[in-house]
Amino acid sequence: MSQFAVGRKRWAIAEGYIPGQSHGPEPEMESHEAACFLNAAETDAHILITVFFEKREPVGPYRLTVPARRTLHVRFNNLTDPEPIPRDTPYASLIESDVPVVVQHTRLDSRQSANALLSTVAFPCNE
To answer: DSSP characters for 27-95?
Structure first.
């Protein structure tokens, strides 16, 4: 493992919601949820994301690769395989990686002209 490798292999984001409306130019000001990944390891990180809902079965896995010693920012709005994540629907996500990574969660809510942005580190799960 690299001297720079940090993070965990499993992360949870308990709160997710992609607003169905936006105010301002797209794609910059489009309402969205994002996961930001840091892979400081010497090998690529293969990421699986499973999305859980209140009133339906989970969807996934969504598959991503974060190259070694790189970062990747992924909007949940852009995840389409196996299916797009529905707008205006509460959800949560479980993120699994084959190498330790750090995950940060961000939401831009631009339904009004006074935008709201929140960001937090995801919950690191025990290995």
So the answer is: TTTS-EEEEEEEE-SSSPEEEEEEEEESSS--EEEEEEEE-TTEEEEEEGGG--SS-PPPTT--EEEEE
